[in-house]
Amino acid sequence: MSMILSASVVRVRDGLPLSASTDYEQSMGVQQCRKYFKTLLKKLAQLPDRCMLKAGQYNINFISSLGVSYMMLCTENYPSVLAFCFLDELQKEFITTYNMMRTNTAIRPYCFIEFDNFIQRTKQRYNNPRSLSTKINLADMQTEIKLRPPYQISMSELGSTNGFAHLSAAEFKGTGKISAAPHQRLEAITLPGIVSFILSLLCGALNLIRGFHAIESLLQNEGEDFSYVIAFFLGTAACLYQCYLFLYCTGWRNVKSFLAFGLICLCNMYLYELRNLWQLFFHVTVGAFSALQIRLRQPQGKSPDYNV
């Protein structure tokens, strides 16, 4: 018998479950699919917005939009068009009921558990084809799936937590081949982080301008010290490198940010004759603030096991 077994709503960035239907089926196949669910939760941000995983007698389908993913488990013979119509209906209702601020700031698992009532009612409708014949129009979804079919995730692409090869990132949204895994993702950018990034760019620009002025002065006056030019450009490079470290995850990231901050301090110590006290204080403080924000913005850790 073809039917939907369970469905859940999860946050894409960390796999936090927001709501889920009760799963009454406890067969070995369903238990294995739950393990696949947990693996997929850790990779949602790297996958296309519409995917399908065929797991023996069952299929896992999901769609993602606005930072939220809608996932379902159904039998292998359940029509794909109905499956994605079901997910699309969940998505529309969830977006209407809850705003993005609430989903982005949610901390506890299943904090929108009341949405389970809608999931259960919708699941019952989709498990009874007679009740669907006059309530939904499949033509639009059939056309959309034909034009942009869901990406087929193979078993060999699942993460190593289940003993398989690593699941890598999609090159683009929608269908397409899977490429090598990207750099590890960092935590979400905070407002202080944005401020530090802008200030670092500002300090880098100021150093760059002063460096060109120093070159101009050097060309006009042969007695000028060329080392000031080097100091300004090194300060520029250190500020821009701090911006890079803030945006991207690299090896020894915290050590590199500390070394960049140290270089900023050394450059400003050397340039103390060309800058007043407030200018020195501004550049050093911005460098320290940026190093702190780099330290605070850590790579995303392993998704917690929420028993989904």
Could you list some keywords that capture this structure?
10 helices, 308 residues, 12% strand, 50% helix
Helices and strands, with pairings:
Elements: E1 4-11, E2 17-20, H1 28-41, E3 50-55, E4 58-65, E5 68-75, H2 80-97, H3 100-105, H4 116-126, H5 129-132, H6 138-147, E6 151-153, H7 191-220, H8 226-247, H9 253-270, H10 277-296
Helix pairs in contact: 2-4, 2-6, 7-8, 7-10, 8-9, 8-10, 9-10
Keywords: Endoplasmic reticulum, ER-Golgi transport, Membrane, Protein transport, Transmembrane, Transmembrane helix, Transport
Subcellular location: Endoplasmic reticulum membrane
Protein name: SEC22 homolog A, vesicle trafficking protein
Largest sheet: number of strands, sense, barrel closure: 6 strands, mixed
Rg calc? 26 Å
SSE order: EEHEEEHHHHHEHHHH
Distance between the termini: 24 Å
* General form: elongated
Strand content: 5-15%
Count of discrete alpha- or pi-helical segments spanning 4 or more residues: 10
Number of strands: 6
Query: Numbering strands along the chain, what is their spatial order in the largest sheet?
Result: 2-1-5-4-3-6
Indicate the low-confidence ranges by residue numbers: 160-183, 301-308
**Overall pLDDT confidence:** 81
**Structural class by sheet pairing and helices:** alpha+beta
Helical content stands at: 40-55%
What does this molecule look like?
With 308 residues, the chain is of the alpha+beta class. 50% of the residues lie in helices and 12% in strands. It has helices spanning 28-41, 80-97, 100-105, 116-126, 129-132, 138-147, 191-220, 226-247, 253-270, 277-296; strands spanning 4-11, 17-20, 50-55, 58-65, 68-75, 151-153. Strands 2-1-5-4-3-6 form a six-stranded mixed sheet, with helices on both faces. Strand 4 and strand 5 (68-75) form a beta hairpin. The longest helix has 30 residues, at 191-220. The radius of gyration is 26 Å and the shape is elongated.
